[in-house]
Amino acid sequence: xxxxxxxxxxxxxxxxxxxLALSAGTLVADDGYHSKYADRFxxxxxxxxxxxxxxxxxxxxxxxxxxxxxxxxxASGVISCATCHNPALGWTDRIPRATGHNxxxxxxxxxxxxxxxxxxxxxxxxxxxxxEGQALGPIEADIEMAMSLDDAIARLKEFDQYKEAFxxxxxxxxxxxxxxxxxxxxxxSFQRTLNxxxxxxxxxxxxxLNALTEKEKRGMAAFADNGCAACHSGPALTDxxxxxxxxxxxxxxxxxxxxxxxxxxxxxxxxxxRNVAVTYPYFNNGGVESLxxxxxxxxxxxxGREFDDQTIKDVVAFLHTLTGEMPNITIxxxx
Amino acid sequence: xxxxxxxxxxxxxxxxxxxLALSAGTLVADDGYHSKYADRFxxxxxxxxxxxxxxxxxxxxxxxxxxxxxxxxxASGVISCATCHNPALGWTDRIPRATGHNxxxxxxxxxxxxxxxxxxxxxxxxxxxxxEGQALGPIEADIEMAMSLDDAIARLKEFDQYKEAFxxxxxxxxxxxxxxxxxxxxxxSFQRTLNxxxxxxxxxxxxxLNALTEKEKRGMAAFADNGCAACHSGPALTDxxxxxxxxxxxxxxxxxxxxxxxxxxxxxxxxxxRNVAVTYPYFNNGGVESLxxxxxxxxxxxxGREFDDQTIKDVVAFLHTLTGEMPNITIxxxx
Lengths: 335, 335
Description:
homodimer, 335 residues, globular, Cytochrome Bc1 Complex, Chain D, domain 2, mainly alpha, 4 strands, two-stranded antiparallel ribbon, two-stranded antiparallel sheet, disordered N terminus
């Protein structure tokens, strides 16, 4: 097929996009933004990176899903991972601070588990590196599920269906395989599948120039040009690094509580911006409900500048384009 | 088609069933049980009876589903109907007694909402007649969701998506339609769809003689012949009536708390036996975990007889055939 034929086929697809350029023999359409900004971002893959020591298998994912929805590994018997990481609420809870065992309220906002397999630091303070390390924390935390791992394991061992599922995932006798490590590996495997690809932004990055409106594109440009993308980088729009920020109402010392280094005071992990429109409220203390206000605070605190109203509106419109396709999870039938 | 042709077609379907009888011109196969017992039971319809004042519409069902999974109509913001009526756990909680706001433990076992539209009395003590009457109780109960209806309604009114959903379900301006009655009507509509047809028992009643094993059929016969079916009657295997029973560890006065009549002391509504194998633990206080033990207690308490081991095993095998197809519910995306 010659390029004129390609052109005549491609033209109807270009829609509002005006400019056409011929680059290395390929037709590339541009809208005045794509050529300048697309390379500064990364589309989100469907599956998060898989660690060498925890191969991703169907059996582990299925087991991890059961465990994720299992409230009987909490002291009350009614709190599961899915209580705070609620699939109906963007896999978070949409309240300021996590509320767990006996109604106790924690100090920090529940992060969504969506796309968390793309992070190289877990929790607001990065006290764990990966999902395997993160998985057991909330089960044992006194103000979350408040269950000792011994008790959780004893509870799981009562059910043949769990014995079978652990055997299917890890081989051997099921009962022996019900270990803290294997619980963590299964939960991590399941969470590694909870990603939200194909957002309007991803479709745009991949070349669908009509996937974003002009306003959203202006927001993307403002986001990149003002330096937001310095920390909100990579496929999940986080560098998994720690930056000092003090948001209204927070006295939390953040990363300092892990390292004890003065320089880590008030540092928190850059949160992902993927699905940020459906994972309010914002910041480590969940103190801000509106994306407009959160954007203004970030501009002041992190960039030392004041965004005008139009820029705020544009950036917020862009942030809405980061909402991807939610995982299509059927509720498991637990034993 | 003549009956010989019908016969030659039907024969391969009859499987293990031996006897054939010609009744009113139709071929009827029998297995020694069906002709005797099938008429004493009713298969479960796919949809529960719809009251004249609450027509069942797609819009109400969708809205009811949102509300059912909505934790922000609880005081803590993390307890929804689905917390205790957990779809992963047979739409109940599988713990002895309901655990709600701030970890408070109630006096009674959470009944499954599955097939609850077939009941003509709701709650263990029948203090409401129908799902519309039942729906708001747990939202307001101090030890369950602990939310005033005014506060719940104010919360819902914050979301455009709810305004739209109420308008779609009830017409008019969405905000005005967010009323206690309309919340109850939507929740009732959704619950009316949560039924479990096509259990092995239903398939058997409808003529699939291979849907039950010989052991299960013996259990069905024992269940009917010993009088269990006197109260566990109708499509949901409950008469929605009240019968005196005192189970181990319970001091609950039951129906008496509603009526104040001496004769109602220790009376509780006959629970449905649909899905009984997956809705343990049993009785008003959730005091019994095993179906074998529950069956023995029922034989002693209600029938004044002792079942031998084989009868217990047969009846329990039969009770397992009452587990139907679980509703295929996708988790809603809440605003």
